[in-house]
Amino acid sequence: MLGLMGAWTSGEVLGLDFETTGIDRFEDVPVSYALVSVVDGVLVRSWSGLIDPGREIPADATEVHGITTERARAEGMPLEEAIGLVADAVVAASRRGAPLAGMKLDFDLTLLDAQAVLLGGRGLVPRGWHGPVLDAGVLDRHFDPDRHGRRTLGDLCAHYGIPFENAHDASADAIASVQVLFALAERFEEVRGTDLGRLHAEQILWHRAWTEDMDDWRVSQGMIRMDPRDFVWPVAPAVMPPAA
Description:
Elements: E1 12-20, E2 30-39, E3 42-52, H1 59-65, H2 69-75, E4 77-78, H3 79-96, E5 100-102, H4 105-120, H5 124-127, E6 133-135, H6 136-143, H7 153-159, H8 170-187, H9 189-193, H10 196-220
Parallel strand pairs: 1-5, 3-4, 5-6
Antiparallel strand pairs: 1-2, 2-3
Helix pairs in contact: 3-4, 6-10
């Protein structure tokens, strides 16, 4: 069992995670993927695979997830096939009303959307995706704002008492992020009791408010402002529309 029964936790949840060539969600590409299906709190299916990114995997990325260029080329599926597979699964879950769950999904979903456009000509929304999304990072920041310290997936697992091994393995990360969400649902009634559509919409606002605060802090420290696309959750456009 992953957590509390009731509300959305009693239905289907689809977890997602990518490992990638780097940290630029518009330019980098995945080198592995994982999808995990949880129904009524029980992990019923997981599927994952290596991806040939069609380019060299930088050494610093390999240090994080352990996937080398040679291994990805030898064992990985073509990038276009992998993007199609994951996009199809994400869109199908959305049509069923199943929430997509993960950690910092604005990275994973934006990367998926950008690659779907580049490789297939259509992003997630034109394919039929409309959410909802449950992001462990956004929800944890909002419902426990005064807690000090870092909030990586590993930190959240430690805080909520969730065993976590093999960090930066896509399957391990996807499962752990779903477990964190169930822990949040158990601790905060509003997480489990709010309608998914409303919870999705509120996360958009909470993410923007947090980003605005972070941007103001950066300016106060003499740092450059954040990329305007960083304010958009969960799928950021490659090019921001002109301001009205």
